């Protein structure tokens, strides 16, 4: 991404130079600024309302460890149950950040999801991964209900072990193939490198 494509916003929600001077979504700002204030370790947060996450957020339940990918979020995501309308008030953003706590994701009841990480790449990957896991759980739950059965869950120890394998570094790396696809699809509009990468020493 080019510097001129980025939008820089101060803590008051004012768009400042350098960069893109477009208006910022005030609801998005209220959430993001609260998360960044509460979590200095977080470099990026991804938040959106996909169809699967909007449906799942109305159920009031956590993502279950029904497959390997879902184990990435095992005991590492929360639920924010206090939907207070569109997040225009900073207090609502603070409550969302409080619900997130030290975890990598939060399901916002009647709203959507939010994921955080130490890199933009990892936060983006986690959002896509959680979205797909939620979609898989909705399908599995519907199929199980139709058959009069229940989904099979990964065991506690196995789920914890799998979650620990998925480190920040691995989540960063796993996004790279998707990033390369976006760059290729841009037909040269986006560069693969910025020219400011840290050179390897080995």
From TrEMBL:
Pfam families: Aldolase_II. It comes from the Eukaryota. InterPro entries: Aldolase-II_Adducin_sf, Aldolase_II/adducin_N, Aldolase_II/adducin_N_sf. Residues 1-138 form the Class II aldolase/adducin N-terminal domain. This is Class II aldolase/adducin N-terminal domain-containing protein.
């Amino acid at each position: 991404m080019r510097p001129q494509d980025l939008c820089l916003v101060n803590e008051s929600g004012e768009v400042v130079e350098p960069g893109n001077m477009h208006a910022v979504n005030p609801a998005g700002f209220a959430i993001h600024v609260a998360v960044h204030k509460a979590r200095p370790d977080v470099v990026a947060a991804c938040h959106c309302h996909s169809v699967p996450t909007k449906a799942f957020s109305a159920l009031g339940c956590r993502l279950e460890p029904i497959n390997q990918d879902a184990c990435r979020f095992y005991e590492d995501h929360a639920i924010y149950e206090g939907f207070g309308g569109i997040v225009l008030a900073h207090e609502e953003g603070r409550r969302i950040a409080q619900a997130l706590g030290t975890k990598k994701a939060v399901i916002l009841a009647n709203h959507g999801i939010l994921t955080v990480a130490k890199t933009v790449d990892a936060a983006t990957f986690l959002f896509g991964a959680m979205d797909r896991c939620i979609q898989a759980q909705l399908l599995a739950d519907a199929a199980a209900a139709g058959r009069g059965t229940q989904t099979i869950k990964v065991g506690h120890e196995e789920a914890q072990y799998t979650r620990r394998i998925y480190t920040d570094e691995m989540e960063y790396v796993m996004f790279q193939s998707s990033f390369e696809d976006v760059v290729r699809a841009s037909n040269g509009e986006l560069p693969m490198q910025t020219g400011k990468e840290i050179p390897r020493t080995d």
